[in-house]
Amino acid sequence: MPTKKTLAPKLTRGRTKRVLKVSGVATSVGSSYLWEALRKPFRSVDDHEKSLLDTHIRNAMKIVESSTELKGAFMKLVQMLSMRDDILPGEALDVLSVVQSQVPPMAYSEIRQQLVSELGGDPQDLYASFEEDAFAAASLGQVHRATLLSGEPVVVKVQYPGVDETVEQDLRNIEALLKTFTLIGRDVMQQEMDYAGVVGELQERLSEELDYENEARNARRFRKMFRDDPEVEVPSVYAKLSSRRVLTMSFLDGYPFADILKEGVDQELKDWVAIKYYRLVWRQIFDFGVLHTDPHPGNYLVSYHPRLGMLDFGSIRVFPAKIRKAYLAMAVALLEDEDDDLGGALLDLDFIGPDDDPAPMVHIMKIFCEPILQDRDYDPREYDSMEKTMEMAQIGFENRIFRAPGHRLFLGRALVGLDSYLKQLGTVTNYHQLFAECVDAAR
Questions:
Q1: This prediction's pTM
Q2: pLDDT (tens digit, 9 = 90+) per residue, 213-250?
Q3: Domain ranges of the chain
Q4: Contacts of residue 71, Cβ cutoff 8 Å, sequence gap at least 6
Q5: Domain 107-159+211-251 class?
């Protein structure tokens, strides 16, 4: 007997309702940590740590449950948190990561209304066929399969009706929850969290991702960037069936990236994906200074050839030429073990100021880049991200290193995603040599 399809409710609108929901989550999360702090003096260290971990898990689940109803900015925040192993322990991140793959779609009646409003006609008239059931659903919109009148298969990305109305509301109210995580970072993870920076970043990213015309431009840019690489596929955009809230692109067939990460997949294919994705990331940084900053597995697929397909271009960061060149100079300095040149690059990138001693930041960078400094076959699982993050945070705290240039946030997300995928794919190879090849090709 077929199971009944679960549909997402309409977006919770109205400032008061969203304030109550977000504030309720923040209050609940904050109160649970306060209760843990009050009980700490009466417990053993082991009991306290176990109870604290349980609290992390419960709070992560509360956030997940709230995000599936609120969607929009709140869900985007949860997705961001699920990539931040410097804020919460791995067990809690595992719960948050559920948001990335379990987003219920919105009813077709709502989606159809949006299509009519944006494209000026009924989807059944604009397309030869249009599947009412969503092919995929995300925080800001969902994707449907369709066929053009000329016969080409396409995908149609439709923004949820009213989601742009809730973004500013969520941004004004989400700070309470982030302030709670700031306390967690200080009291549990022993480091400071720049919640204001996260809010600012979220606001900028959402503004870009809500503009599908901007995403269309990004897709065209990436098609041009990788037109010389037959192993990378980027969909084409159909401008006449696209608008600020609707995007029609060619359909790319293949295996979802998440499926490639699973156990039982041929290791040879995993190795090809790991190396191709590795080169793809560094080429974006060093060759183009244009970076895909959302390493969500739903944004990639692997075709049968094999080829690596890129599917979503809502979160792209373009670095000024000066920043791109400085990152390339930093990479050269790391490979050549030239600390003075590395310090100069860090100054150009605003990681340090002109009066700062570069040595502590040089030390931090070498810890962060340990996998590419090992000239041997290296297993990415050797790198303990949590332990290294704590070590880098301690150096930064002791030397009062608090600079956080905006480009670092975007690059950091991309590299955290790269590290996560390499560990899941389990590819053991000489990443030092691969990195050196990417740097030499860009010089």
A1: 0.78
A2: 999 999 999 999 999 999 999 999 999 999 999 999 99
A3: 15-102+167-194, 107-159+211-251, 255-443
A4: 8, 11, 103, 139, 140, 160, 163, 166
A5: alpha beta
